[in-house]
From TrEMBL:
Name of the featured protein: Secreted protein
Top-level taxon in the UniProt lineage: Eukaryota
Signal sequence residues: 1-17
Entry keyword set: Signal
Amino acid sequence: MSFNFLSVPFLVTVIAAAQFNHDNSAENGQYAGRAASYNNATTDSPDLPTAVEVRIKLKSYLDQGLRLPNGMTCVCPSGFQCSYLGTVEPRCFMAFSVMVSPPRGSIQYMTTEFLPLTDSGALDLSRVTNEQANQWSQPHVFHLNGKPAAISVFVHHMGVEINAQTGALAQMQSVVHVDTFVQDLQQVLPTTASKNDDHSVTLTGQVIQTQLSLSYSVKCAGDALGMNCDLQCNQSSVQSDIALCRSIDTGFLYTCSYTDNNLQVRFHNCCQHFRRILR
């Protein structure tokens, strides 16, 4: 089954809407939402052995001006009364869906609950429970059969949509795709199973240019090596900085140069042999 990534924002919008569990009430001034959880959206490919571990930690988010796409906002704009809201004080609630897709097999994602923003557009973790705050700050680990090309994060808002220029109500309660963040992994050399290497980045959204900070690491599982964690290698008995490798996927043999203190090899430093070992 093929997967059309043009449909990903719509798919994640459906996921975000389905996971929302908001009773429009608060306990002790804290937002009552649904706990973050792991979910798997799968193709019809069979399960394959784990080759790569991707660890992602969301750190901070900023929607300066509390904007939504298409000139909308999630609060009553300055200079308007928004009497249609009655006694309800609108707030901005954002959920974050992290998605990774290996070359074969299952697409994996996790979705947080909807979390409130402050008036300045940052996450307001003072208004959530300790459990919810911990769920936001904990690293999320994905075990995949191959290295994904990118990490994608989709942000959604649940609540009111108000025209920022006119103050007119567009929607009282809806799920809106706010922004999309993509961190390219194609040039990231994974570490080996015995080593961790975190990368910290601040990304700008592709829709309305909000900001998301996160850290991530990509690590080969077991004894796999290479840019895509698809090589099994042995050190040459003749030259210690040379590795003799076999592709896990194709069975082809390669001679590669070691890097990172002989812990890893880069595929562009490999020469293919005209020989293949069948598994």
